[in-house]
């Protein structure tokens, strides 16, 4: 395998999470007795550009199909984040009814709806047809396709170019990151702005967030590496923010290198220096991550086995991709966790891949009254603890597995 960016041969393993199905490949009851496709989940570090990347076994068109079950609008905190972002962009850059905001991976229109409320023209680009249909129902015009240079050229040739081009949690999802960034260069107006949000690799390493590794995520990104990838396509970083979403993310701001209208913020050099001081531009930083993941595995399995011996019931909350990575790496099945609650009706009455744990609604949790509830989307811990505070009424406790096992 060779690096997706600099083409160097990859031999340095960042972490090997063994084999697992695609993390969002939920099963119907009828599929439980059928074979499941498992794919290696091994991640490498490039010693030249420090791009951390998974080998592409699972093809993207098989993951992002018409039955994709992730809908952004089921998280209230994520909607709040989206609205706040729309307000900030319009205040900072003055977008109005003469502007065009294009979102790549626009999902169900969760974000563009807030620009639309301000009468700012919007266009979504979303490869999953079922989420795109929901967006269209909100009045968000959506192109159903994967983004890259081909689509970018087609749109640009029709005069469709972005004043603001954005993507939240998509940069890590693209198998050909170079083609993707090249496409952004193509579709951006001469004085346009790109913002991208993605989980920061520094947070992944330092907070043991190995459960954010799954087949849909092809890349794990530092600011240093993303800056290099963008620069290679003639795009320049002019600002960056560290934000709390998804356990610690970056929001980058980019422009055409030729665009002299935007000053380079001191935040750019400050974050590059911060990463350098952490050691992120040396291979030593990426060693020993496997051992950290193993400790979490042993601690979680030890907890579950202890509860099983004591006849205590354990449920989960949040049928999130990260929960599936964690459970599959740990080898957890439905004999150790009884069920998982999720607010998304598209996941309810299905079963988690590999573990075959049933996904149920919140009413089932209230009826069963388990002694422990494991919060799998730990990045939404506060939201979920508040929402499920009533489990304390029957003596229930919350369990947070990442960055270390914690019982609340």
UniProtKB/TrEMBL annotation:
Q: What class of enzyme is it?
A: transferase
Q: Which GO terms describe its molecular function?
A: methyltransferase activity
Kindly give the InterPro entries that the UniProt entry links to this protein: Methyltransf_Zn-bd_dom_put, Methyltransf_Zn-bd_dom_put_sf, MeTrfase_14, SAM-dependent_MTases_sf
Instruction: Report domain C-methyltransferase positions.
Output: 244-403
**Enzyme Commission code:** 2.1.1.-
Domain Methyltransferase putative zinc binding positions:
3-64
> Does this entry carry the keyword Methyltransferase?
yes
Q: Which GO terms describe its biological process?
A: methylation
Keywords, A to Z, come to: Methyltransferase, Transferase
Highest taxon in the source lineage = Bacteria
Asked if the Swiss-Prot or TrEMBL record annotates the protein with the keyword Acetylation, the reply is no
The protein in question is named Class I SAM-dependent methyltransferase
Annotated source species: Pinibacter soli
Q: What is the lineage of its organism?
A: Bacteria, Pseudomonadati, Bacteroidota, Chitinophagia, Chitinophagales
């Amino acid at each position: 395998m060779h690096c997706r960016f600099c083409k160097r041969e990859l031999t340095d393993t960042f972490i090997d999470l063994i084999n697992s199905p695609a993390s969002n490949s939920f099963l119907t009851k009828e599929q439980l007795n059928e074979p499941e496709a498992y794919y290696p989940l091994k991640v490498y570090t490039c010693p030249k550009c420090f791009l951390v990347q998974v080998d592409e076994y699972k093809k993207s068109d098989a993951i992002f199909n018409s039955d994709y079950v992730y809908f952004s609008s089921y998280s209230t905190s994520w909607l709040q984040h989206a609205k706040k972002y729309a307000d900030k962009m319009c205040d900072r850059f003055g977008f109005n009814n003469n502007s065009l905001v294009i979102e790549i991976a626009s999902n169900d229109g969760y974000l563009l709806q807030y620009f639309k409320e301000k009468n700012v023209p919007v266009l979504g680009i979303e490869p999953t047809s079922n989420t795109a249909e929901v967006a269209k129902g909100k009045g968000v015009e959506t192109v159903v396709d994967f983004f890259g240079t081909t689509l970018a050229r087609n749109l640009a040739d029709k005069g469709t170019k972005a004043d603001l081009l954005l993507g939240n949690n998509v940069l890590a999802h693209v198998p050909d990151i170079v083609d993707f960034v090249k496409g952004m260069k193509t579709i951006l107006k001469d004085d346009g702005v790109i913002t991208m949000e993605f989980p920061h690799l520094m947070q992944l390493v330092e907070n043991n967030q190995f459960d954010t590794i799954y087949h849909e995520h092809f890349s794990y990104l530092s600011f240093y590496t993303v800056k290099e990838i963008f620069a290679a396509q003639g795009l320049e970083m002019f600002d960056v923010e560290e934000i709390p979403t998804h356990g610690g993310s970056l929001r980058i701001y980019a422009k055409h290198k030729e665009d002299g209208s935007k000053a380079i913020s001191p935040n750019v050099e400050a974050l590059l220096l911060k990463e350098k001081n952490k050691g992120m531009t040396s291979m030593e930083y990426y060693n020993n991550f496997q051992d950290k993941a193993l400790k979490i595995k042993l601690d979680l399995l030890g907890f579950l086995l202890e509860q099983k011996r004591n006849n205590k019931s354990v449920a989960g909350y949040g049928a999130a991709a990260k929960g599936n990575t964690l459970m599959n790496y740990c080898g957890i099945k439905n004999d150790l966790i009884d069920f998982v609650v999720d607010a998304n009706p598209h996941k309810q009455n299905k079963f988690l891949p590999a573990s075959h744990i049933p996904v149920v609604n919140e009413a089932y949790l209230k009826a069963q009254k388990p002694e422990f509830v494991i919060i799998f989307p730990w990045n939404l811990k506060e939201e979920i603890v508040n929402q499920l505070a009533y489990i304390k009424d029957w003596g229930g406790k919350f369990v947070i597995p990442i960055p270390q096992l914690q019982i609340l």
